[in-house]
């Protein structure tokens, strides 16, 4: 597919809508591409991802998002205002809480039978060889960011990776700001196209209730920037059209541990392909979101507006943002990732057949 973006990105809406053309989003090509990926280290920046967009557009978009991270105050820059505002929030949170990036190294070992809507697929099964830590904050004022690692984070984000922000003191024993709470204060009532009610009524991530078992989100997830309908906004269209942010566990009463008071959950966020119809008050999986969900069910890969990747909590392969001094320990007998609030026990949404048991190395940044 030839490049679409124009000078100063005056037609981001055309690029976004192009991503949902039937030929561009034809599922069989991505099911095949997902099955062919053998080693995440073979990908750009050691990331497993398949893109739906032209490489020139991808590079321009990533460069623009990177500029929004590095220079969030530059309103004359090319990064759309809505994207820049979220990136400013995320970069400020990472810096203030000294968060680092943790990425699993994935190697395909075989396939497993995966039945979705009565159709049988052979989805890829991986082995996690290592969990690797990448610092994001730079060493001094002259080098404020580790730019290559920030770009790695943005590439994972653009591909739809599931991010878990480990800020729960009960999990880390390190005091960190509540990401979900901070996001709500910054964006809970801000939406450039919708109204005040920018929450998603339901989604399929976490939400385990102590007495009720797995339950859907009940108006707690933030849908940013609250794009509605089945077409990209014509005016000031952002690249980030379908970000979802929510807690990894039911919001319980505050816990007091010594001098620290915290809620027993962490936060997840990911870029989805398109907001579900529930964002406009209608439960269901129709339209763009529903078609992407079908592809997700076939591959157990996460689908974003621009691509797809295998970094999913349902596979035990999410991406983590964790405090710099957090001692990373994967659960060798459970879900193959660190235990955290919302995933301390094996959950019903976890697909154990998607991973080959193996003891993964933990590689800390030097």
What does this structure look like?
The chain has 366 residues and is an alpha+beta fold. The chain has one domain. The protein is built from 8 helices and 18 strands. A hairpin with a 2-residue loop joins strand 2 and strand 3. Helix 3 crosses helix 5. It is globular and about 55 Å long. The model is unreliable at 190-196 and 279-283 (pLDDT under 50).
Which terms summarize this structure?
nine-stranded mixed sheet; 8 helices; 366 residues; alpha+beta; single chain
Furnish the topology, listing elements before pairings:
Elements: H1 12-18, H2 27-36, E1 50-51, H3 55-70, H4 81-96, E2 99-116, E3 119-135, E4 137-140, E5 143-145, H5 147-158, E6 163-165, H6 169-172, H7 179-187, E7 199-200, E8 208-209, E9 213-214, E10 221-224, E11 243-247, E12 255-257, E13 260-262, E14 267-271, H8 287-299, E15 302-303, E16 307-309, E17 319-323, E18 361-363
Parallel strand pairs: 3-18, 6-17
Antiparallel strand pairs: 1-16, 2-3, 2-17, 4-5, 6-14, 7-10, 8-9, 10-11, 11-14, 12-13, 15-16
């Amino acid at each position: 597919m030839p490049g679409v973006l124009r000078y100063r990105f005056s037609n981001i809406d055309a690029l976004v809508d192009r991503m949902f053309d039937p030929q561009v989003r034809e599922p069989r090509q991505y099911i095949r591409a997902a099955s062919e990926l053998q080693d995440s280290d073979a990908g750009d920046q050691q990331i497993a991802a398949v893109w739906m967009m032209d490489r020139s557009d991808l590079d321009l978009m990533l460069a623009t998002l990177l500029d929004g991270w590095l220079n969030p105050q530059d309103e004359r820059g090319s990064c759309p205002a809505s994207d820049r505002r979220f990136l400013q929030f995320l970069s400020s949170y990472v810096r203030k809480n000294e968060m680092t990036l943790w990425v699993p190294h994935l190697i395909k070992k075989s396939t497993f039978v995966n039945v979705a809507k009565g159709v049988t697929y052979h989805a890829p099964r991986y082995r996690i060889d290592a969990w690797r830590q990448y610092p994001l904050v730079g060493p001094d004022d002259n080098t404020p960011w580790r730019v290559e690692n920030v770009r790695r984070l943005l590439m994972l984000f653009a591909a739809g990776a599931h991010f878990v922000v480990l800020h729960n003191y009960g999990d880390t024993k390190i005091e960190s700001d509540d990401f979900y709470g901070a996001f709500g204060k910054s964006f809970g009532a801000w939406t450039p196209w919708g109204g005040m009610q920018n929450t998603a009524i339901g989604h399929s991530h976490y939400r385990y209730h102590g007495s009720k078992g797995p339950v859907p989100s009940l108006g707690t997830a933030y849908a940013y920037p609250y794009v509605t309908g089945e077409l990209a906004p014509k005016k000031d269209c952002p690249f980030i059209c379908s970000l979802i942010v929510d807690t990894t566990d039911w919001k319980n009463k505050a816990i007091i541990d010594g001098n620290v008071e915290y809620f027993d959950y962490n936060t997840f966020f990911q870029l989805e392909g398109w907001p579900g119809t529930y964002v406009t008050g209608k439960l269901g999986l129709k339209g763009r979101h529903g078609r992407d969900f079908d592809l997700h069910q076939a591959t157990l890969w996460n689908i974003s507006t621009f691509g797809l990747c295998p970094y999913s909590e349902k596979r035990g392969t999410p991406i983590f943002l964790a405090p710099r001094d957090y001692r990373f320990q994967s659960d060798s007998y459970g879900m193959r990732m660190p235990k955290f609030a919302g995933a301390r026990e094996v959950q019903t949404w976890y697909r154990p057949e998607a991973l080959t048991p193996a003891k993964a190395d933990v590689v800390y940044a030097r």
